[in-house]
Amino acid sequence: MQALARMHTAGKITLSRPILWQNEAKNITLLNKNLFSTSEPMRLIATLLLASLSLSMAARRDFTHFWQDKDGIIKAQTELSLELVNDIIDQEKPSVEPPSKARMAALYLLDQMLHDTRLDGSPLIADFLDGRMQRVIADFEVPLQEGMKIYKLYNDGWIVRTPSVAIGWDIYRGGKVKEADRSLMSDSIARALVDRCDILFLTHNHGDHVDPFVVECFLEQGKPVVAPDEIMPGDARILHTRRPEIWQESFKAANGAQLKATVVPGHQDHLQNNIYILTLPEGYTVSSSGDQWLREDQDLMLNLQVKTPPVDVFMPICWAADLPGFCKSVGAKVVLTGHENELGHHSIDHREAYWLSYNKLEDFPIPNSLMTWGESFFYK
Ligand SMILES: [Zn+2]
Ligand SMILES: [Zn+2]
Description:
This protein is an alpha/beta fold and 380 residues long. The chain has helices at 2-10, 17-35, 40-65, 70-91, 101-114, 123-139, 187-195, 212-220, 298-301, 323-329, 354-361; strands spanning 148-152, 158-161, 166-169, 199-201, 225-227, 239-240, 247-252, 258-268, 271-279, 285-288, 313-315, 334-336, 368-369, 376-379. The strands form 2 sheets. Strands 6-5-4-3-2-1-14 form a 7-stranded mixed sheet. A 7-stranded mixed sheet has the order 7-8-9-10-11-12-13, with no helix packed on it. It binds zinc ion (2 copies). One zinc ion is lined by residues 204, 206, 209, 268, 291.
């Protein structure tokens, strides 16, 4: 301790790690010598002292190590924080019950990191996302006997799974990782997700919803890709569908499962935005809003009641205009918001934070759950 104090006052900037280590080693040797000449209780106390010394040494070592290393400290802090987030949310799973403070804190912590532009394109965030997606892939190994599972992927990407079918929605890998030839979600992970799906639905022609690599993976495997006319218009392999009024249609997934669809012809500004309301073979009805956003559509969106079948689970964008009104209009029994923390939105005010969604979902009229990447919600 004395040696350390001396070094602190002597000049912290020039302090080098090897010197610190040497002094620490001396301290341990001293303690060890004394250890063997003492009685049993003393030995115990000495052992405890030694343990606490090692702990404080570890902390001190890290602390010292980051002086003048701004990138290093952010990197270490991010790595440890992401680990902590995983630890918490792997325990505190999504549910319609009010979230625990620990779960909320974990999502707030994610907000802090995902709104820190120093971490844009960071391999740490990319690895975290891949790790979250690995959980989805692993969960597919567990047979689903009943009910419906909804997995939240990145941005507004979803997989809806029942015993008979798995449906992909706007699956997207995210932007590029700095100084690496990869996307936020790696290609192999994205492909593994596609492997587990039987059909893909695309809502509208924006880059954070339509990922050419993902679309190609579906098509290569002979799995249908359903989209409004504006998405890859020249590509005959896409099942284009769009009408001026709400319409009914059925789609056959690659595994033969029949899906009954009622489609609402929405928009995001000038773009077509198809809202597919899908009834699955087990009778569950599910829908994702895509980026529905047009003032002129609002009357239709808030009065869907008799025109469309009631939805069991609805995945609206978190920034939907009149979120409760929209969810009531589709007859949602459970609401799972999407599109939080899209990192491609360079202006961080449009990287909708989880804390914002928590705020919107407080006193919400419909049961709901806020999820992050790679989490699933079970509905029965
Ligand atoms: Zn979007
Ligand atoms: Zn969009």
